[in-house]
């Protein structure tokens, strides 16, 4: 049960972060204007690097620590449970897109 709870928390945090980044990207041009393309490119690439690091921590961080501590079965179960919850969220988002 601890594994499922951790997987659910990690996946909810990952989906919340994805929603936050999507909201930022959706409103960035309105907020900052389309004039400075060079700074926009730097900002987007920096956001990409930060996002990859954040998702790496949320999805792979604890499973990697557990794996290195010798809890290999639990680590693999946590990793795939987290990915399963994120995939479930993806299916929900795709269903909403198809309906509306």
- How helix-rich are the residues, as a percent range? over 70%
- What portion of residues belong to β-strands? under 5%
Rg calculated over all Cα atoms? 17 Å
DSSP strand tally: 0
**Broad shape:** flat
Distance, first to last CA: 36 Å
Could you tell me the mean pLDDT?
93
Sheet bearing the most strands, described?
none
Give the helices and strands as they follow along the chain: HHH
Number of helices: 3
Provide the structure class: mainly alpha
Uncertain segments: none
Overview of the molecule:
With 100 residues, the chain is mostly helical. Helix content is 91%, strand content 0%. Helix 1 (2-32) runs antiparallel to helix 2 (37-68) and helix 1 packs across helix 3 (72-99). The longest helix has 32 residues, at 37-68. The termini are far apart.
Which structural traits does this protein have?
mainly alpha, 100 residues, 91% helix, 3 helices, single chain, 0% strand
Topology:
Layout: H1 2-32, H2 37-68, H3 72-99
Helix pairs in contact: 1-2, 1-3, 2-3
Give a short synopsis of this structure.
The protein is an all-alpha fold and 100 residues long. It contains 3 helices and no strands.
